[in-house]
Design a protein that fits this description.
The chain is mostly helical and 272 residues long. It has eleven helices and no strands.
């Protein structure tokens, strides 16, 4: 969330002199609070799953009451930082993200196997928060496209993880698509979402988001690399090693998107 907030903030800047770390720090604190509260909310199911049983609460490292205090402290600290050092709209988007993650997505996961789709709003909002903190228009098509990219990207990102840990989610009592579709069907569906992610990333070239042609060329090559790996994923036999490799690669893809777009804008501001 802090990385994508930074991207939105950098893209919305008009000059380097006005750069401030406070909006990024504020969103980071809110994200920490949301994560801590999520650990409290899912403490019982975490204990049931191999992947999560060693987290702080189920392992007995900290008490649930202590985690609630940590979550509240981060929530207050993040809110105060954004209210005093940023804008009310940035704070509003940050609190909406917090609410959506903990009050909507987290409980929805326990009853709805497609909860990740509405839940992906959590990934779309942080870059928007950064953008408005820099003075950008909340309805600007550029940031709407960036937000759409992170919304779509989260869905195959999660479903690849689901292919690896589907049985573990069953232990926790979560309804999952692995109980509805076969592994082959879920691979096919996830592949389609990866292609949609690539298409949206390629469309950055047509919305004036980038300032230099070399960034656009790098983006095309990056999308080609992800497409190549997604075809390998599509043809895979359903082994966990292949799923984990694809999970790593789709995360690298998003990180390189953030890095390249941020550097493109920072170089432009530095040379002006």
């Amino acid at each position: 969330m802090a990385f994508t907030t930074t991207l939105g903030y950098v893209l919305g800047l008009n000059d380097l002199e006005s750069f401030s770390l406070y909006p990024i720090i504020g969103i980071f604190f809110l994200a920490c609070g949301a994560s801590a509260l999520n650990h409290y909310q899912e403490r019982r199911t975490d204990l049931l799953m191999d992947r999560t049983r060693n987290r702080p609460i189920p392992s007995g490292t900290v008490t649930p009451a202590a985690v609630l205090m940590i979550a509240a402290a981060f929530l207050l600290l993040g809110s105060a930082t954004l209210l005093i050092k940023s804008t009310v709209l940035t704070l509003g988007i940050g609190l909406l993200t917090f609410f959506w993650y903990n009050a909507v997505y987290t409980p929805m996961k326990k009853i709805f196997s497609l909860a990740i789709i509405p839940g992906s709003l959590v990934g779309a909002l942080p870059p928007l928060a950064g953008w408005v903190a820099a003075g950008g228009d909340v309805f600007d098509p550029k940031i709407m496209l960036i937000a759409a990219f992170f919304f779509i990207w989260q869905i195959p990102h999660f479903w690849i993880l689901l292919l690896v840990y589907g049985k573990d989610y069953d232990k926790g009592g979560f309804p999952t698509l692995t109980n509805i579709f076969s592994s082959r069907q879920l691979i096919n569906i996830t592949f389609c979402w990866i292609i949609l992610t690539i298409v949206i990333a390629l469309s950055f070239n047509f919305f004036g988001i980038m300032n230099y042609s070399v960034t656009g060329i790098f983006l095309v090559l990056l999308c080609g690399w992800l497409l190549y790996n997604s075809l390998i994923f599509l043809r895979s036999g359903g082994d966990n090693k292949g799923f984990k490799n694809m999970f790593i690669r789709i995360n690298i893809f998003a990180l390189l998107i953030i890095t390249s777009l941020s550097l493109d804008k920072l170089i432009k501001l530095f040379l002006e």
